């Protein structure tokens, strides 16, 4: 493989899988480097249930993307491997991998993803203190298992509360962004819970509901109208435990202007998307800049929309900021195509 | 969503006749209760800016009404009418008349700062409470607090003499706040002072009360100072 026919793709989540497949489809070679021992990224590693908006199980939908890449002769896959060094410049990069191998590539696509917010950083909401306080990821795993039960004693919950904006939109902990997908994921999760456990009532505590675009009726309205999810405009002050073992959700219902202390059986944190914990390292190795929140910074928005601050290196998916799977896939295609254009030496990009 | 909260109804909008007979039917008391509708007719567009001009309220415009401040509020736990989230909403929209309904409790903020620590937008609600209380006081909408009266007496003496005289400050403060000059604890305090203070010190204090000396070469300093303070206040609140 020469540098002139190869694109190095880092990360194999939806964005990276899409980028690699695009490069191969355009007749070039992709080298896909993944730090974990499985391909698929967050949806697979964190065990997401049904995806928004297709309703397809993550393992099926993303699994299809994985097998497309695995079965492609133009794509070389390195699992449990990281890029430890990148030399050269646009058109002739040489990457050194953590296993000592080197890869020559004309351009690079970063699809390094995000890190789920760690709820331990909001101790007042009881995660890590009470067994029945979970994150959306854990709840998705419970949905995948087909049974809705309280982790503490296995009882079927009468009531589940989902708290939105945990680790998003919060100056106190330096998360000055909306994680974009948690509202939709939560309304979807509410429906899944109700489907599996019809006797369980689901409450969503919100500051705003941001089921953007076509997610409005398909998720927000449907959840409210057909699945009877109750929406309460309140940001919860704290989650405590009552003597009978149930959780108590304390706050102000801002619409009735009254304090609330409501018993719940499970409390779910709709956790946000943090910049990948590895972004500082990634920025150093690849020589790309980070934007003010810590996500990978982008080049000129309109003529080089997948570009990073370094020529020849592109970025896609949640590495650039919170995003949904569909956009990540689209960005992967876009970054892949752009990276291939570089191999032809025809790029005239603004950085 | 309609708000069916009984306590949101102002008492003066409840119409009820104690004795009323219509067509021979006695509908006295609650049988004839009517509630006149409340319509908000306008916003005071400049109000948010006015409150923001007081120290502590600079970030009030950031509020998105999540209610974290009210949730965490020490006073709200005692009295649900003490609702910082609601007052911030009224300030932002300029619903002054609504805010004034709670004017007599806004000062009760104990500055525990739990709201400021939890607010996701860094509105600093504790500062807004203080600013609002100051605005209320400065505009004569609530009675002056004793601490303000003390501050005023203290400042007046500083400006006039370039110094303060403890006895004078206390006397002035008691006069301003309508407290009797002779109080048991003061009498006791005086007695012990006389007993323990050296005679020279006592004489000096007595002379100061009688002759009210000014700081050396104070001259026009007080006037200039007073003018400066006035200009600063005007610039802050009316600029």
TrEMBL record, chain A:
The keyword Oxidoreductase applies. Gene3D superfamilies: FAD/NAD(P)-binding domain. Signal peptide: none annotated. The keyword Oxidoreductase applies. InterPro entries: FAD/NAD-bd_sf, FAD/NAD-binding_dom, Metab_Enz_Cyan_OpOx_G3PDH. Coiled coil: none annotated. It comes from the Bacteria. SUPFAM superfamilies: Nucleotide-binding domain. This is CoB--CoM heterodisulfide reductase iron-sulfur subunit A family protein.
UniProtKB/TrEMBL annotation, chain B:
Keywords: Iron, Iron-sulfur, Metal-binding. One of its GO terms (cellular component) is plasma membrane. The keyword Cell membrane does not apply. Residues 97-129 form the 4Fe-4S ferredoxin-type domain. The lineage of its organism: Bacteria, Pseudomonadati, Pseudomonadota, Acidithiobacillia, Acidithiobacillales. Pfam families: Fer4_8. This is Heterodisulfide reductase subunit C. It comes from Acidithiobacillus sulfuriphilus. The keyword Lipid metabolism does not apply. Coiled coil: none annotated. GO terms for molecular function: iron-sulfur cluster binding; metal ion binding.
């Amino acid at each position: 493989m020469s540098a002139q026919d190869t694109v190095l793709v880092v990360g194999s989540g939806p964005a990276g899988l899409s980028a690699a497949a695009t490069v191969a489809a355009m007749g070039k070679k992709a080298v896909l480097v993944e730090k974990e021992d499985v391909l698929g990224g967050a949806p697979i590693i964190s065990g997401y249930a049904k995806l928004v908006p297709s309703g397809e199980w993550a393992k099926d939908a993303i699994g299809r993307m994985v097998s497309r890449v695995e079965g492609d002769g133009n794509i070389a896959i390195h699992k449990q491997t990281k890029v430890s060094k990148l030399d050269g410049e646009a058109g002739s990069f040489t990457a050194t991998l953590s296993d000592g191998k080197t890869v020559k590539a004309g351009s690079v696509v970063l699809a390094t993803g995000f890190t789920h917010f760690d709820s331990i950083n909001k101790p007042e909401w009881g995660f890590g203190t009470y067994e029945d306080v979970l994150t959306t990821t854990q709840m998705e795993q419970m949905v995948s298992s087909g049974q809705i039960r309280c982790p503490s004693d296995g009882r079927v919950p009468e009531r589940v509360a989902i708290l939105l904006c945990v680790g998003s939109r919060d100056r106190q902990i330096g998360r000055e962004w909306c994680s974009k997908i948690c509202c939709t994921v939560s309304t979807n999760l509410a429906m899944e819970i109700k489907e599996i456990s019809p006797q369980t009532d689901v409450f969503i505590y919100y500051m705003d509901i941001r089921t953007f675009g076509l997610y409005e009726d398909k998720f927000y309205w449907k959840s409210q109208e057909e699945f009877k999810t109750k929406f309460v405009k309140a940001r919860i002050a704290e989650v405590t435990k009552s003597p009978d073992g149930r959780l108590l959700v304390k706050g102000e219902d801002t619409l009735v202007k009254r304090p609330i202390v409501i018993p719940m059986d499970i409390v779910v944190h709709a956790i946000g998307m943090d910049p990948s914990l590895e972004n500082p390292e990634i920025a150093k190795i690849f020589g790309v800049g980070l934007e003010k929140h810590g996500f990978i910074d982008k080049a000129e928005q309109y003529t080089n929309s997948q570009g990073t601050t370094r020529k020849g290196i592109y970025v896609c998916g949640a590495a650039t900021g919170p995003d949904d799977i569909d956009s990540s896939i689209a960005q992967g295609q876009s970054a892949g195509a752009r990276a291939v254009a570089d191999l032809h030496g025809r790029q005239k990009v603004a950085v | 969503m309609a708000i069916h909260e009984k306590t949101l109804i102002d008492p003066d909008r409840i119409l009820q006749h104690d004795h009323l007979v219509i067509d021979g039917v006695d509908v006295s008391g609650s049988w004839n209760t009517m509630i006149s509708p409340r319509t908000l007719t306008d916003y005071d567009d400049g109000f948010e800016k006015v409150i923001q001009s007081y120290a502590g309220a600079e970030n009030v415009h950031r509020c998105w009404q999540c209610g974290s401040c009210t949730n965490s509020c020490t006073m709200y736990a005692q009295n649900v009418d003490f609702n910082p989230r609601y007052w911030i909403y009224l300030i932002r929209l300029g619903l002054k008349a609504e805010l004034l309904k709670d004017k007599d409790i806004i000062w009760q903020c104990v500055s525990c700062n739990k709201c400021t620590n939890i607010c996701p937008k860094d509105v600093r609600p504790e500062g807004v409470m203080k600013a609002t209380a100051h605005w209320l006081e400065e505009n004569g909408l609530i009675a002056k607090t004793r601490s303000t009266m003390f501050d005023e007496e203290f400042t007046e003496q500083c400006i006039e003499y370039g110094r303060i005289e403890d006895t004078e400050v206390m006397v002035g403060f008691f006069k301003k706040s309508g407290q009797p000059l002779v109080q048991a604890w003061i009498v006791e305090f005086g007695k012990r002072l006389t007993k323990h203070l050296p005679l020279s010190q006592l004489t000096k204090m007595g002379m100061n009360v009688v002759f009210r000396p000014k700081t050396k070469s104070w001259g026009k300093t007080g006037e200039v100072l007073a003018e400066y303070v006035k200009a600063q206040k005007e610039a802050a609140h009316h600029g």
